[in-house]
Amino acid sequence: MFGAAIAALFGITVVFSSLLWLLWRESVASEAAVAGGLAAALGRAVDNTFEDARRMLAGLDELQIPRCSEEHLRAMQDAAISRPYVRAIGYWQAARRMCGVGLLPSQGLKPEHADRVYSSGVVAWWPSPQTEYGGVQLFLMRFGDHDVAIDPRLLLDMGSAQDREAVLWVDHLRMSASPWDVALPLPESLPLGVSIDRVHGRLISRFSHNDLLPVDVLASESMDTFLQRHSIVLFAGAALGLLLAAGWIYLILRFSRQRLSLASELRQALSTPGFGVKYQPVIELATGKCVGAEGLARWERENGERVSPGIFVPVAEEAGLIQDLTRAVLRIAIRDASQIREEFPDFGINVNLSADDLKNDRTDRELVKLLEAARLSPGAIKLEITERALINSDVSRALIREFRRRGHQVAIDDFGTGYCSLAYLQTFDLDVLKIDKSFVDAIGTEAATSQVIVHVIEMAKSLHLDTVAEGIETLEQVDWLTQHGVRLGQGFLFSRPLMLGEFLQFLRAQVHQPERATHAA
Amino acid sequence: MQPSTPGKWRRNPKVLVCLALGCLVTLSSCSLVHPGNVATKESVPQKSASAGLPPGVHIVDAAAVEQESQRMVATLGRGGHESIVASDEGYYLDVLQGRLQQAVGGRVDIRRDGQTISLEILGRMTTDTSGARLDPVTEDILTQFGRVLVEYHATVVTVQVLAASATDAEPSSAAPIVVRRLVQEGAASMHLLLVAPGPARADKPKSASSTDIRIAFKIQPIPRTQRQ
User: How far apart are the C-alpha atoms of B179 and B158, rounded to whole Å?
Assistant: First the structure.
């Protein structure tokens, strides 16, 4: 239950963290979308305004009418009226304003220094105190003999984002702002996109548009406003988070209960026919002759559902039932071995021991008792111990020595999946080394493990251990293993795990078959 | 009537007053004569180089060009109608630069350096039996430039024509053509200052049928100054 509680807590933390991250990301993405869209719209508007103004001035220059005549003034008036951003249009001779229309003094505005003189001939003065008239700092543009005064505030149409502070930069110069005197960092000092200004507690977005002229839009919003605006999403997210957390707890509880009930069910099943053992033949590779079998536990629930060993073995380990499970397998295997030995006297069955079975002599005592009851010699049962179960245990070392002394063969199972070195393996009394299926699968491939199997085989040879390859599925694997001196093997190539009756038939069939020719022959 | 003798008119005060007034009028007239018509110390040795130039165009050695242009700016600035208010100087140059960009910007290197604008044209001069002439592109650029100078006349324009490279022939005959073209388009000759071509070097060919030339203009505004 402690594990379940930890899992529940971890799950809730993960769910809430993920949700918060997701909400933040979504909110920032939404902010970025708004600011990005705004920048694109403003950029287009600025481009259009500049281009339109230049064309208008060029058009006025090209008019073939007397300058400052009524017709000329009307043309300028029409051009100004049709453009909302225009405050005034003037006709100049060099630095003298000859006439004009709009809201500017008759002598016009003559700032001391132009901010830009473009190669097209457009001269531009960005808003400054020198271009101020009527309380508005104007943007001035001159092309040829006409100039236009533009109200830059009209270039910064914030639309639905009017609650934000914003600054519009055109060609790296400050063109407009809302409010006019707002202080925001220089565009170059900010990354593109949305960033957090922790010092001022605000969210600043910078977006650029570069078509006719480079345009930068900076928009700022206080974190409070930002959070308020996204509060609905945040509340919804919190509710969803609670829902998900509740769901997670429910799943954890249900899983725990299921595990508990499964353990309890397994405890009962161990002594019923629902729990059984299947036998996978162990074959002598050179001859194809079955020389033994590995007993594999199988469990079928009362409702007919088959539970995989991958599920019930961990449940048994967690519930402290693993030794009961070993004892149940031993009981069935010894009973079946008696029956098999009636026809095949020297036949032996391999039974897997768990790490817990090597922690005390309970399983050992049970094994002795069962063999005595069945009047079988210890050679009828071979014991398989996983590599992981061997790790650092004097008790297990003593038990293994005792098993061998009595006449059981002891095999190390799934070799290669643990951490045993040759030196460590030497400290145990073993008879057989079983090569894990993952190494057999790698035979003939470019996988790194395809080289490891060679070393495993060499290790077994140096320790004078018999070798069994697990999970053989192809004849090529058989050939390779035979060539490399592996004597025994098991796998679907020879047979799937069989019930006792089927296994006996398999053995009987073998008796009537000629021995498999060796690869070399 | 007895003829007057020196002793007599010296003793006559009316004659003395008339003489004094006559001298004053003569001196005043001299000071009102346009400086272009006055041979300056620098312009005196350039009489041969001024052949074929429109009247009123100043010509000066390269070494004295800065001094002479400043003198012209100062003199013309006192003229009033051909000068600009000092506070408009920056605006004037900005819009002049824009106008030049519009007129000849794609074909001419235009540079702004403080209160001056420099233009540089790379062209070609051809000489044959009918005389020397500039290539059509350069002619057109000079036409456009001259027209701009008509509107922006409150300027002194220094003109210098050089060989495009050290191996090209001395383009001494190109300078009058350039200046004439500007004046033809309406530029005020009194506002033009031509840098006299240097003496022909022995290692350079004296003339060639076709020569690459570099025409450099330096435009300075004429700010209005108070009469002394």
Answer: 10
A237 part of a folded domain:
no
Predicted confidence at residue A518, as pLDDT, reads 40
Query: Is A93's Cβ below 8 Å from some Cβ in B?
Result: yes
Residues 162-221 of B with CB under 8 A from A: none
Beta bridge partners of B58: B193
Whether A222 is in a domain gets the answer: yes
Domain-embedded: residue A86: yes
CB of B125 within 8 A of CB of B174?
Answer: yes
Is CATH 3.40.50.300 what the domain over B38-221 is classified as, yes or no? no
Residues of B in contact with A117 (CB under 8 A): 94, 97-98, 101, 112
Per the structure, the count of domains in chain A is 2
Residues of B in contact with A145 (CB under 8 A): 151
ipTM comes to 0.76
Are both A296 and A445 inside the same structural domain?
A: yes
Q: What is the CATH number of the domain that holds A356?
A: 3.20.20.450
Query: Are A201 and A281 in a shared domain?
Result: no
- State which residues form the domain around A135: 2-228
Which ranges constitute the DSSP H helices of A270-321? 309-318
Q: Is B31 a residue whose pLDDT tops 70?
A: no
Write the CB contacts of A204 (distance below 8 Å, at least 6 apart in sequence): A184, A185, A190, A194, A195, A196, A197, A218, A219, A220
Which of A18-27, A400-409, B53-62 has the lowest average pLDDT? Answer: A18-27
A298 lies in the same domain as A210: no
Convert the pLDDT of each residue in A127-139 to its tens digit: 999 999 999 999 9
Instruction: List helix spans (H) across A168-284.
Output: 223-229, 231-269
